[in-house]
């Protein structure tokens, strides 16, 4: 019995910490509710940076569809399952990670907080959760790697028009301990983004701009003048080359030959594309609509997930992002076929308010919610999270049984 009384979990520890602080009149540093956290972040950011972070493509329909899709699934908890010891570990690309959660790649974080990606790396290191670093980071990938230490990190690649820059980025990622290359496919161009257009806002010239490009030797070679002397020219060059709309499935072989690191394709929504990815011998895919920022009117990422997961079976690993806000969202995504999820805007909200501590506090709260909700549904491990945990909600908000 005494064992049981002393047993604990990340979720309970976090609850106890918050409640004990509450007894001493101390509120948590950040709102716990993700919607209120979002509003709190809005208050500390300037309108243009806020519009960029929070906005979606066009009408924002896809961004709201991402959230609505989670509400159309309900969890049906099982009782008396012996859920005292819960194990959140999962295997991703051959490595074990603490929980099925990662920091999504978000570009130019210096517009959110001066410590930018370095702060996110510290948060990832504190929590021992993987970081996926954007090519468009405002700090160099080496500096970010130093800040993170030996934690798991993947590098997100914008595969642009200059092969030397692409090869150089991949080489630097290998040399600085990134263990996978995530190729983002859904950003062949930046979408029509109403708020940024109205604000005339491109984030790349703000703060430290695009430090990861500016520090790249191949990128620097392509410029007439160094980016420190002529940042506008450097940004224009970046904008003209960071992505390459001419790429086709056949080009993947070039990247496959370039590196031995696992390759993960980000932005898959269609089961045929998922099959193509498996045939192309990549190692994984991320089902994502870029947080609703690219194709206005695209399907919710969660609606794509079960179909895509079925299409590839066990051939390649399936990850998910777009709209994850709560522990129950993670459970739903796992039940529908994801091995792990990426979280985007919410950690930026924490970062905006309280730097590295804010980003890690937000992710710890999500991890705690996941741990408790996992146990409450009758699961002790991530393997227990299967599709029969879910029922589809009907239009009235009940469930279809
Ligand atoms: C401000 C912002 C910048 C982003 N930059 C990148 C990027 O550089 N590379 C990338 O692959 N995805 C980028 N994304 C997409 C995220 O990786 C992720 O797919 C998305 O944020 C997930 O949705 P969520 O914000 O609802 O969690 C960005 C998203 C936001 C909000
Ligand atoms: O804004 C984005 O969604 C994005 O993916 C991006 C693209 C280029 C640079 C920085 C971020």
Automatic annotation (TrEMBL):
Keywords: Flavoprotein, FMN, Oxidoreductase. Its cofactor is FMN. Pfam families: FMN_dh. It comes from the Bacteria. Glyoxylate binds at residues 52, 193, 290, 293. PROSITE patterns: FMN_HYDROXY_ACID_DH_1 (PS00557), FMN_HYDROXY_ACID_DH_2 (PS51349). CDD domains: LMO_FMN. InterPro entries: Aldolase_TIM, Alpha-hydoxy_acid_DH_FMN, FMN-dep_DH, FMN_HAD, FMN_hydac_DH_AS, LMO_FMN. FMN binds at residues 105-107, 134, 156, 158, 184, 266, 288, 321-325, 344-345. The active site is at residue 290. This is Alpha-hydroxy-acid oxidizing enzyme. It comes from Longibacter salinarum.
């Amino acid at each position: 019995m005494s064992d049981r009384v002393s047993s604990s979990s990340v979720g309970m520890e976090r609850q106890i910490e918050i409640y004990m602080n509450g007894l001493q009149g101390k509120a948590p540093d950040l709102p716990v509710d993700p919607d209120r956290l979002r509003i709190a972040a809005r208050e500390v950011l300037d309108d243009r940076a806020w519009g960029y972070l929070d906005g979606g493509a066009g009408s924002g329909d896809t961004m709201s569809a991402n959230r609505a899709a989670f509400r159309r699934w309900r969890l049906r908890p099982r009782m008396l399952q012996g859920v005292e010891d819960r194990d959140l570990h999962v295997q991703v690309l051959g490595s074990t990670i603490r929980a099925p959660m990662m920091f999504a790649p978000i570009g130019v974080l210096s517009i959110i907080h001066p410590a930018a990606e370095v702060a996110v790396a510290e948060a990832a290191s504190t929590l021992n959760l993987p970081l996926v670093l954007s090519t468009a980071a405002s700090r160099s990938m080496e500096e970010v790697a130093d800040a993170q230490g030996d934690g798991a990190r993947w590098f997100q690649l914008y595969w642009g028009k200059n092969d030397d820059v692409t090869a150089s980025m991949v080489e630097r990622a290998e040399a600085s301990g990134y263990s996978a290359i995530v190729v983002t496919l859904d950003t062949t161009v930046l979408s029509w983004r109403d708020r940024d257009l109205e604000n005339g806002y491109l984030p790349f010239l703000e703060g430290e701009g695009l430090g990861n490009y500016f520090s790249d030797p191949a990128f620097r070679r392509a410029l007439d003048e160094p980016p420190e002397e002529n940042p506008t020219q450097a940004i224009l060059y970046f904008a003209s080359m960071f992505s390459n709309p001419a790429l086709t499935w056949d080009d993947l072989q070039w990247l496959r030959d370039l590196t031995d690191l696992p390759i993960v394709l980000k932005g898959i929504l269609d089961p045929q594309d998922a099959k193509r990815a498996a045939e192309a011998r990549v190692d994984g895919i991320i089902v994502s609509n870029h947080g609703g920022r690219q194709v206005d009117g695209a399907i919710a990422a969660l609606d794509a997930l079960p179909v895509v997961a079925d299409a590839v079976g066990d051939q390649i690993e399936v990850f998910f992002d777009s709209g994850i806000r709560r522990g129950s969202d993670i459970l739903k995504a796992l039940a529908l076929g994801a091995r792990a999820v990426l979280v985007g805007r919410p950690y930026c909200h924490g970062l905006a308010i309280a730097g590295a501590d804010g980003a890690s506090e937000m992710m710890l709260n999500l991890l705690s919610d996941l741990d408790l909700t996992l146990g409450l549904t009758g699961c002790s491990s991530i393997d227990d999270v299967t599709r029969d945990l879910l029922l589809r909600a009907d239009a009235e908000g009940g469930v279809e049984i």
